[in-house]
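hiii so um. not sure if this is the right channel but i have a protein structure encoded as tokens and i wanna go backwards to a sequence. like what aa goes where. can anyone help
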């Protein structure tokens, strides 16, 4: 079902591409050929493809109680969320991270980033975090699970009381720590979105306005919204002008949405190294340098994140921010505490 140019095909078998991993010169995220979605407009939403038979259109159902509660908060005020930077697959780390962040964020965004790919399954982590009184915004990727496994995970997330699910296609296995694993990519993020809505979940999707082909990004998000996406997570970017331009372009297409903007969170050399390793990310000018050059990088990083978050929150259509990044090994808990302090200073809760 890939929209192919020349004789290439998408290594992620995407129906509704392009992904955010397109290189600046148009090369594919992982293959030595151009991304196959560079030309023309993004494919219009036409259902979940099937290798055999016509596409299907999953029927949305009302939000779960946890999803409805979170939607109610979003309707009343802006929110602050954070990544959940803890040692992977350890219950004690989940509990400690929850204690650090519980009072200060509306939800934590849990995922499976390239550097810590093997994690407890999303629904199990959601259960652990809910037991600690933390709201959970869970990523779910199409890289490691086929559509049957994804449907089971979505049902479990709904049952576990997840606040929202972040539907992503996912980085290819060739990036990150487990390149030997077999990639799946049975579905993509747009298709997963529609199935999540059929499980009563509040759904966000990701966009990177500065990823190539930039001209397609607003229209691509509009197709995800057509599939059911409630919110747009805007990945780390060059600044508020980028977010404003993207949201106005989405509006011009007749699509209304609200955005949660990722704010880079850097407090030391280790967290800076993780940030600069995410090659699809652009950054506000001298953001990292300004933190690392300070006498007290931890305090400078907290202040820089708060100041940038306030600028994003002033952009019409921005519903909230997410403190985003990762910690050096052994520094996860202090990093989570610094994120909590930044969230506290924002004063949104
Ligand atoms: S850049 Fe992404 S969407 Fe484009 S061909 Fe490669 S994997 Fe597919």
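sure thing!! here u go:
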């Amino acid at each position: 079902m890939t929209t192919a140019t020349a004789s290439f095909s998408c290594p992620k078998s995407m129906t509704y591409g392009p992904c955010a991993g397109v290189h600046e010169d148009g090369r594919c995220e992982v293959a030595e050929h151009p991304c196959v979605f560079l030309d023309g407009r993004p494919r219009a939403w036409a259902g979940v493809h099937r290798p055999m038979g016509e596409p299907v259109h999953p029927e949305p159902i009302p939000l779960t109680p946890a999803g409805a509660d979170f939607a109610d908060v979003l309707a009343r005020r802006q929110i602050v969320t954070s990544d959940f930077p803890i040692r992977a697959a350890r219950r004690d780390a989940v509990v400690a991270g929850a204690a650090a962040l519980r009072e200060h964020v509306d939800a934590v965004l849990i995922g499976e980033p390239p550097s810590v790919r093997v994690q407890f399954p999303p629904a199990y982590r959601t259960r652990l975090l809910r037991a600690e009184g933390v709201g959970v915004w869970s990523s779910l990727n199409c890289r490691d699970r086929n559509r049957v496994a994804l449907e089971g995970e979505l049902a479990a997330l709904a049952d576990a009381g997840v606040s929202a699910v972040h539907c992503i296609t996912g980085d290819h296995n060739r990036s990150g720590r487990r390149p030997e694993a077999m990639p799946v990519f049975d579905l993509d993020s747009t298709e997963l979105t529609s199935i999540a809505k059929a499980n009563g979940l509040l759904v966000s999707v990701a966009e990177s306005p500065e990823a190539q082909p930039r001209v397609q990004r607003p229209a691509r998000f509009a197709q995800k919204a057509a599939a059911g996406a409630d919110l747009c997570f805007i990945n780390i970017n060059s600044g508020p002008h980028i977010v404003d331009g993207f949201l106005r372009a989405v509006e011009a297409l007749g699509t209304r949405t609200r955005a949660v903007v990722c704010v880079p969170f850097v407090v030391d050399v280790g967290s800076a190294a993780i940030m600069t390793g995410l090659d699809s990310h652009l950054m506000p000018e001298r953001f990292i340098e300004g933190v690392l050059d300070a006498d007290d990088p931890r305090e400078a990083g907290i202040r820089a994140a708060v100041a940038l978050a306030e600028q994003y929150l002033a952009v019409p259509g921005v519903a909230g921010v997410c403190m985003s990044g990762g910690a050096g090994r052994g520094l996860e808990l202090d990093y989570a505490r610094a994120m909590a302090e930044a969230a506290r200073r924002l004063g949104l809760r």
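oh and The domain at 65-346 is CATH 3.20.20.220 (TIM Barrel).
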